[in-house]
Amino acid sequence: MKIAILADPHIGSQNDIFVENWKAAVKTVNGCDDVGLAIVLGDLTLDGANLEADLAFGAAELKEITAPVLVLPGNHDVGDIASDSVQPANEARLAAWEKHFGAWAWHSDAAEGWRLIGLNSQIIGSGLLAEEQQWAALERMLTERGNRKPVLFLHMPLFLEDWNEADRPAWALKTQDRLRLQRLIAEHGVFAVISGHMHRTLHLRQKDEPVLIWTPASSFLARDESMPSQPGKELLGVTLLDFGKDDISVEFMAIDGLMKSYIEDYKGSIYRSPAKTA
C-alpha cells in the first residue's frame, strides 16, 4: 500500500502565501492513482493555534485530497510543547483542533501487516491531562496490535542528533519524554518513526534502531545557519511511502513549479525564528 505524506503546508485563511504550493502538492498526490491513504504531518495551518479561521480553512482544504486522509497537529496548529512559549499547547487549542479535525491521536490498520499510530507531539512533555491520556492510549495501541508491525507518525522529530541530547522543545521532543518513548519503541519493536517539522528530508537506518524518516514541507525552507546542527537535506515536496510485507520504501518527490523561499527571507513577518537552543 502506498501512503502519501504531506507535511508543513502552513496554509492560512488570511495570508495565502503558501496556498498555491499546497494546491500543487495535493494535485501531485491526487495524480498518483495508487495512493491508498494520505497523512498530513502537522502545521497544516499558518496560525491555527491563534486563529480558528485557519483551522476551518485547513479542514476545508483537506477535502480536496481524493484519498482517505488522516491528519496530525503541529506547533502552529495547537501550540508549542514548552509551557513558557508565547503559544503553548493548552486545552482550548486542543478543543479547537478536535472541533475541526477530530482526534489528535489515532491508529490505522489500513496497510496490511502494519499498525500506523499517529501521536500529537505537541502535548508530549506539556504536563496537560491529555498527555497522560495519550501515553495510555499509545500503550494500548501497541499492545493490541497483534502481529502488525508498528510505525509512529508525529509532527516533531524525536531528536536532531541523538537520543540523549539536551532539551530543545522548539525543535524536538524533550529528553525525559523522548527516553520514555524510546523505551516503548524498543519494547514493542517499532519499525519506523516518521516526522515533519524540520522542512528537510532524512531516511536513516541504524542497527537495532527504528528507521527514522523526516518528510519535506510543501511551504518553505530554512537556512542551515539559522538552525541547530541536524542531518538531512533541503527539499520542497511530498513523500510516498510504500508499505510492503517487511519493509517501507521511501520516495521523496520534488514538485516542479513550487515557490521556493526561505523563512529567513520574510524577516519575521510570518514567523519569528526560534533560537538554536530553544
TrEMBL record:
A GO MF term: hydrolase activity
Entries under Pfam families matching the protein: Metallophos
Regions crossing the membrane: none
Span of domain Calcineurin-like phosphoesterase: 1-200
InterPro entries hit by this protein: Calcineurin-like_PHP, Metallo-depent_PP-like, STPP_CPPED1
Record-linked PANTHER family: METALLOPHOSPHOESTERASE, CALCINEURIN SUPERFAMILY, SERINE_THREONINE-PROTEIN PHOSPHATASE CPPED1
UniProt name for this protein: Metallophosphoesterase
